[in-house]
Model the fold of this input.
Amino acid sequence: MLIVTPPPKPPHQLLAGLVNGDNARQPASQNMEDLMLEVEDLFERQLRIESLLSMSRKLQGELRLRLKSSPQSMLPSHNYVLPTGQERGIYLALEVGGSTLRVALVELHGRSVKQERLRVRRIECSPIDANVRQLRELAFFDWIAARIADMLAMEVNTKMDEPLRMGIAWSFPIDQTSIRSGNVLGMGKGFHCSQFVQGHDLGEIIEQACQRAHLNIRLDAIVNDSSATLLSNAYLDPSTRLAAILGTGINAAVHLPIAALHPSKFGPRLMPRSSEATHVLVNTEFSMFGKSIWPTTRWDEKLNTSHLLPDYQPLEYLIAGGYMGEIVRLILVEATTGAGLFGGHLPPSLLSEYALDTRTLAAIEQDHSASLVSSCILFQERHPSSNPPLYSDMRFIRQVTRSVSRRSSAYFTAGMHALSSLLEDLGGSEPLHDGANHIGIGCDGSVINKYPGYMARCQDLMDQLIGLEGGQVRRRVVLEKTIDSAVVGAGVAGAMAARRDG
Done:
């Protein structure tokens, strides 16, 4: 039976107990040790480099299959070429997400400039809270236009004699019909305008809202977040051919030969001439891959079966920031009932699904102190209990957290290795500029860029995977951190469209 604790001790009593070694509650050490070893075994025994290479090869087979048949993944965008690095000018960029709107002015100086090749001249963030999501019909887009006007009002040096060119990173489903147009497929997440705008062209909706706000703006490009990240990094590093977003969720984009995709993937669109474009930027919808490939544990299966969409995004459920904390929480619940963690008394907050967030895991994992006092205090603050964690409890939690995050970085790397290998095998990494002997992956998201040691582990594993391939000659794959990639990429996409228009 799961026991929920009464109200917590005051902070001064907690700290005194930690410092003075208050052992009034004795840990059930043997059972916890056994479970900790089992967790380590189940999460890490599949992470030998040979096993990860095997997963990558199986995933490459699934990627090839979905290039030909899947209507939900490996989706070609309307971006066919990558930036030359010669795009210059000032561009308005929007990032419209589920919880935040970001409006920015992006200043491009060109890749040949030795110092500041691009600059986010100004960026303003506005929360998309419940009140904003409840705006009906076109009022949500009028709110966006008002935020654009607010930001531009701060820019006294921005001339509006000619239309200000704009790109937008749109995080909701869209049936894109050109680089600057596409029919909204719905927005979900409590947006009351969703039903009204569904089936209508996003480009027209945005431009008309700007006209009502008396803004002289032209929308030139619509991209998704992973495509924006690739364009952002490719503007600075011409070796970039892939991009990955790993934060709350996961997605990836890759620049592949058009011939690698089945013609049905492109629908009725007018294709560019082969002299104009041979490749296309592909939105992989990478979260959906690997259901039969990734080894799982009983805690993963519990998370999956209780999810609103079981099996829908198998990779995301195993590695993304939105789920790492829940996997750890499920293990802690089992450890409390069966191994005496927290003296058998679960902190009340941990009864709720998804109550343990990735920021807490990151803080605990990077605590290398002998006493783990700071982790104990943090955990007690965020998950209060009258039976605060002992050193043995925190040691268990830290080891579980490490096992979960190590598996996350290993599976992520196997996935990126599969994509980069597919890229090379299909001829997607056409001769790179500037004599580059590597392939760049632009990376953004709170997990890949901010979780302690995560990217370094991924790079080390990637080097090992490429080195293990023996007879196959592969270029080194380099993970590269990007900053503000959605708005920068939207700005770059707008600049590329403007340049094509002459």
About this structure: Confidence is low (pLDDT under 50) at residues 19-23. The CA atoms of residues 230 and 241 lie 7 Å apart. The two ends are 71 Å apart (CA to CA).
